[in-house]
Protein: DNA packaging protein
Organism: Paracoccus jeotgali
Amino acid sequence: MSVHSEMFDDLLGGETSPSEAPSADSAPSVYELDERGMSELLGLSLSMVRTKAREGVFVRSNRGRYDVHESVRRYVSRLREAASRNGSPASAASDELKAEKLRLTRAQATAQEQKNRLAAGEMVAVSEVRAEWVTVATDLRSQILAIPPRVAARAGLNLDAAVILEEEMRLALEGLHDER
């Protein structure tokens, strides 16, 4: 068993023989490790060990050395706090915020998809379609209203018949407009 494993077992309350157990009279012994030792013991990078020291999680006992017992106790406490925050049921406000962020993300994705489809020519703007149909409808109306004078001239209809024909065409067009 390595020195680190023995220290780690001791810190976590691992098995010790009665001869190894500290007596009630003696003060707990202080285990110290340098940055590299803390790194190896906890599986952290050297820079993470330094960061944890700056954050006050790892306790320096001497220059370049750390109090292993207190540092590990604080580190485990910090990990427990983080785990409880991440694993605990979220508050209603947090759920609402997450839902709102999800709606926003979906809306942004939809908007981008539409822009992409417009750019690719797979979609056209409603305003462009409406303008084109207004032009088509106006041209159609003009062509239909030009029919009565042409028919009257070709068929030799009198003026009264031509007026009646034009009125009927206008009524039909107005009926279409009103049904809309």
